[in-house]
Amino acid sequence: MTTLYGNYHSRASRALWLLEEIKLPFKLTHVVQAVRLADPLAPDAPLNTRSAEFRKLSPMGAIPVLEDDGLILAESLAINLHLARKSGGPLAPANERELALMEQWALFAATWIENDTLALTLLYRRGEQDSEAGRQEIARLTGKLARPLAALEAHLEGHSHMVGGRFTVADINTAEILRYGMAYPQLLDAYPRLARWLELCHARAGFRDMWRKFEAEPV
Ligand SMILES: N[C@@H](CCC(=O)N[C@@H](CS)C(=O)NCC(=O)O)C(=O)O
């Protein structure tokens, strides 16, 4: 039995996209971020990242968490790599070399990109984009992102996808981290290959199915 704890408006979306692609039967147990609740510890609060029951699975109090035949796994990108390998098929690494590259790109996106793309999303969510301070922060964040985005653009000059010349879990992991940055619509203007690749990732039925559920889920 495969259970994913989380919700569509969280990093669980990465695993939910992958699960749409690989068609693995699973149960989604809805866990909401504590910061979204007035009193997450109230007796009638929905299951959330501070609930004692959930903290037994995630001492960090973070979603997503995967429970898979007794394996408890946190970290969205590790969850995706595990699910892809378990399911086999074209999204999974075909060999050790591809696995190494998929791990490389997951760590690359998590360490070089995610903090700054997430900061862009949060800045827009706070409505700060048109203030002077907001504009300066956008310039600072996009400045920091220039180096890893240029590296991805250069990679896509010689490759159709992140790994293996086909759509894989490495594309999902990278695309989901980049998506946070798209709150700032001009982010990829200087990176046409990256923009096109992201567009193609988002045109997939698996992403569109996940996104429909994302949009239907109350925040
Ligand atoms: N590196 C972790 C980060 C997990 C994380 O921070 N999740 C957020 C939601 S996207 C969370 O659960 N925050 C807890 C809270 O806001 O209470 C991963 O990729 O899974």
General description of the model:
The protein has 219 residues and is an alpha+beta fold. It has two domains: 2-90, Glutaredoxin, CATH 3.40.30; 96-204, Glutathione S-transferase Yfyf (Class Pi), Chain A, domain 2. It is 54% helix and 8% strand. It is built from eight helices and four strands. The chain has helices at residues 12-22, 52-55, 76-87, 96-125, 132-158, 169-179, 192-202, 205-216; strands spanning 2-6, 27-30, 65-68, 71-74. It has a four-stranded mixed sheet with strand order 2-1-3-4, covered by helices on one side. β3 (65-68) and β4 form a beta hairpin. α1 (12-22) runs parallel beside α3, α4 packs antiparallel against α5 (132-158) and α4 (96-125) runs parallel beside α6. The longest helix is centred in the middle third of the chain and has 30 residues, at 96-125. Bound molecules: glutathione. Residues 10-11, 33-35, 49, 61-64, 75-76 line the site of glutathione. Glutathione (GSH) binds next to loops. This is Glutathione S-transferase. One of its GO terms (molecular function) is transferase activity. Residues 1-91 form the GST N-terminal domain. Pfam families: GST_C, GST_N_2. Keywords: Transferase.
Care to give the gist of this entry?
The chain is built from 8 helices and 4 strands. By secondary structure, the chain is an alpha+beta fold.
Strand order of the largest sheet: 2-1-3-4
- How much of the sequence lies in strands comes to 5-15%
Bound small molecules, deduplicated: glutathione
Helix content: 40-55%
CATH hierarchy class name of the largest domain: Mainly Alpha
- Poorly predicted regions: none
Q: Note the total helix count.
A: 8
Overall domain count: 2
- On the 0 to 100 scale, the average pLDDT is 98
In angstroms, what separates the terminal alpha carbons? Answer: 27 Å
**Tally of DSSP β-strands:** 4
Helix and strand run? EHEHEEHHHHHH
Radius of gyration: 18 Å
CATH topology of the largest domain: Glutathione S-transferase Yfyf (Class Pi), Chain A, domain 2
**Based on helices, strands and strand pairing, what is the structural class?**
alpha+beta
From the coordinates shown, what is the CATH architecture of the largest domain? Up-down Bundle
Keywords: Transferase
Pfam families: GST_C, GST_N_2
Domain GST N-terminal: 1-91
InterPro entries: Glutathione-S-Trfase_C-like, Glutathione-S-Trfase_C_sf, Glutathione_S-Trfase, Glutathione_S-Trfase_N, GST_C, Thioredoxin-like_sf
